[in-house]
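Appendix B. Chain record.
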Amino acid sequence: MNDFTEPVLDSQPVIETERFLLRPLRKSDAGMIAHYTEDKRVAEGTRSIPHPLPPGATESYVARAMAQNRVEDVWAIDGSANNLAELLGVVSLTRLEDDRSELGFWVGAGFWNTGFATEAVAALVAANPHHARTLFAEAFQDSPGSARVLTNCGFSYLGDAESWSVARNARVPTWTYLRKMG
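Structure tokens predicted for this chain:
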């Protein structure tokens, strides 16, 4: 690998929870991802989802998540084995430097307050597929539910910051969290 080549990441494991599977994204997920993220509330809860969604944005996101040279591993929260929706949301890990990764997640608005986000984040943390020593995450300060997901999964408050939200076209105050692993 030279300085101009992205690292090739290992294949993602499938992670089983009580109510669903965390599995790598596939092309067929694009429609449900677009459906959920067209909801302004979902888009505004993230840094990177635009609102309204431009044509092809979801397909590009799925293609990046499936690429061999991806920088982020994205798992679909798939409840189809338990008579739930095939896609409830996503959870992701982005490799930072050394043994650190950043965790992100969202679930469709119809699944808020169901415990799906907490179950998905807890399963990803327990599996620790990046073998990270430290996980970072953030929650917008106007999203206390997201902050509860993180604290329920063993993350500790680290401090206040700001992040850019594409959907809001603005900097948004955040709470930053850290979880030491092992």
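Further analysis of this model is presented in Appendix C.
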